[in-house]
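From the shared-data thread, chain only:
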Amino acid sequence: MAIRTAEQGQEIMAEPNRESAGSQDIIDDALRMVDALQRKLIVAGVRRGVSSAVSPPPRKGDVWEEAIRYESAQPEPPALEQLMGIVRTKGPEVAGHLGRAGVSLAGAIGETLGVVGRALENTRDRGERPADRPDPGSHTISGGEDA
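Structure, as tokens:
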């Protein structure tokens, strides 16, 4: 196998290694695959170039035609499609608000239950029972004469 260097213009003889005989086959196969791929890409590019050169360019209207097209009223989409668009755009925002509101509600309920629980523990610790408390409707006057 001879390798020619571009700088020196000389040929250098390369001796194949005995150990690299298997790897040489793999390299040759890889080079063949690259050549085949390059050929296919070139053919595809030529076909694409020929078809674009043969077909006429797409007709593009003048400025006035484009302005009229933008100014003309577009048909209104069906109601179901409009509703689905609203759900797609506003749904995540609404779900986020509902989620935050649910978390706030759960926090408020937890705090309320904590206050009620502490109040019940305080009454239990003092040994009070609801029957021991005076009735708020009955007022007794102490230290004075009965009228």
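The mean pLDDT is 76.
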